[in-house]
Fold these 2 entries.
Entry 1:
Amino acid sequence: MQDPFRTIEWKDNHIRLLDQTLLPREERYLDIYEVDELCSAIKKLAVRGAPAIGVAAAMGVALGMLKAPRSDFGAIADCFRALSSQIAATRPTAVNLFWALDRMKSVFDANIDKDLNQIQTILIQEAVSIESEDRRLCVRIGLAGRDLFQDGDVILTHCNAGGLATAGYGTALGVVRAAFEAGRNIRVFADETRPLNQGSRITAWELMKLGIPVTLITDNTAGALMQAGEITKAIVGADRIAANGDTANKIGTYSVAVLAHRHEIPFYVAAPLSTIDMKLASGKSIPIEERDPMEVTHIFGVSVAPRGVSARNIAFDVTPNELIAGIITEMGVARKPFENSLRALFV
Ligand code: MRU
């Protein structure tokens, strides 16, 4: 089945992306011509999800370089560096953003002898390749993981690791989708995922568009359903996976993993290799974004807390590797000990 939407694309020298802040009420595409607009779209989660943020970062560099000064190479290189730093400062946790910026830099460095028009074209081509590769990788992740899910499985997922968190098809939801497309009789419970409700607004919306049976629950409900034997597997995406398998993902993922462990339910992570940060030995060094407390005290602009109350808005948590049954990538499923199995995926 075709994707029912396009997360992000390069279109006539600008970026077009589906504004995820408006879902599910409205399907509106943003046409982005300035890097400042792209950075605010990333910060406010109009485009979100680790792989999609990586694509946005790469396209942002290509977009900004269209306005590079037509002077000497030094000025062009300064422009490239400034754009990369600006985009790198948008969100700290999803490593795909930094992976994509590094990849754009390698291409830039390899073509410094070309004239500006050629460099601009090459950077656009690279950003577009990152987008199209990402969708293909997600399909491969789906195929690598689908046989972990069987007829009758009832699968819990948290946040959104679907087509909208990637260039298309999705990681965790890509695996669910591949199992469903293989004819498996499966159902999904989607955590609503406070504070920004990626589960209720986006995951439920995507699964309904795909015709995959989904039931929405509050974040507090997962434990009771596991206790009642109503959940058989759990799968989530990742924003950054350390070399030992510790996995940063949306806040609340750790709680789901602990609950799954308590109830002996396999807990899987699905992500492309670009989400694995082999430079970090463990999850302790993963930078965790903390966002505006307003996202906690308000829902869609409406206050749900007393005025002036203190609030914290930690956007991600780290699930220790021992709670993870397998990490599903485009190169296959890594199992414990992850130090060895993840490294083997890169050779
Ligand atoms: O804050 P968000 O919506 O960008 O957080 C997204 C997640 O935590 C996803 O689960 C993760 O990026 C995996 S996306 C395939």
Note: The mean pLDDT is 97.
Entry 2:
Amino acid sequence: MRGTETADPFGRGSVRRRQLLIDTDPGVDDAIALLVAAASPEVELLAVTTVFGNVPVQQTTENALRILALAGADDIPVAAGAQRPLVHPQPHRAARVHGANGLGGVELPLAVRSAEATPAVRFLAELLHGSSLPVTVCSIGPLTNIALLLGTDPGAAARIERLVVMGGEYGSGDVEPAAEFNVWSDPEAAQRVLRSGLPITVVGLDVTRATAMNAAAIARIGASGPVGSAAAEMLAHHLDHYMRVQGGRGVVIHDALAVLEAVIPGVLGTVARKVTVDCGHGPGRGRTWVDRRTGPAPGLQDDAQSAGGAVPRQGVPVQVAETVDLPRALTEIEARLRSYGAR
Ligand code: BDR
Ligand code: CA
């Protein structure tokens, strides 16, 4: 959606659009997230940048182009980014979960255009420098592009008004017992981003796991029109995986929840916490440690007393999503996916 103001098809009058950039590795839930963003009157989706992750970056880029074409959003530029993590290449991809093509085996029609000639990190930097309005960035894949932006053009990164990240786990992991896929895919990048001091909201597995779309919702989306039908086909592949492998209640659409928070700030309840990423090479690699303690750090009590107050803990706090209004989140996501049928 282009332009800064629009009438709201969800009946909330005229809305000022937030500028949004999405960095992604589609991925079924990324595809759903992109469809949600492109149908959201609250945002102007400025561009999509891609990164390796669920499948290699050539495929995630092709998928992003095809998803935007499906959404009728062929005017939104797509720029291809990192093909590997910052430091340690990882052999594992998520094809077992997302299918070999990343979209659950669903063959979306070919896009008529190609990605931008400018690589993603430079593209992001140019957009951020050039924007006269505040920009939200939503990262729903490994954080490599964002870490590279911080390293190569910190001035551009500093222009990010808000960075919403789908990443981390604050209970138990998915790809490993202790690690979530996006952070585990490039822990060094995640650490660099989470320590950057940018205004970050992290949306981890604790809240995303609750966001399960059941078979009835998928059927309603599928019946809404051609876009809904393609979305439902991708979700159905995922439903099979979640029921068989994870014994779940429906498809967990991690990335769509993060994008919803970027589109409607406050849909998630967050608390300021310090988060550290395990960048070691043991079984904890990629784990996100969240500090839920309050007050002065143990062991620093004497210093605190002699300093006459609390000693600040190390690190920069980020907003950690801890609660989700589930009925609202699921209703909003479903409504946006079904809204294509009414166009
Ligand atoms: C994250 O991992 C990917 O497989 C999903 O697309 C999501 O971004 C969830 O852990
Ligand atoms: Ca993703």
Note: Confidence is low (pLDDT under 50) at residues 300-313.
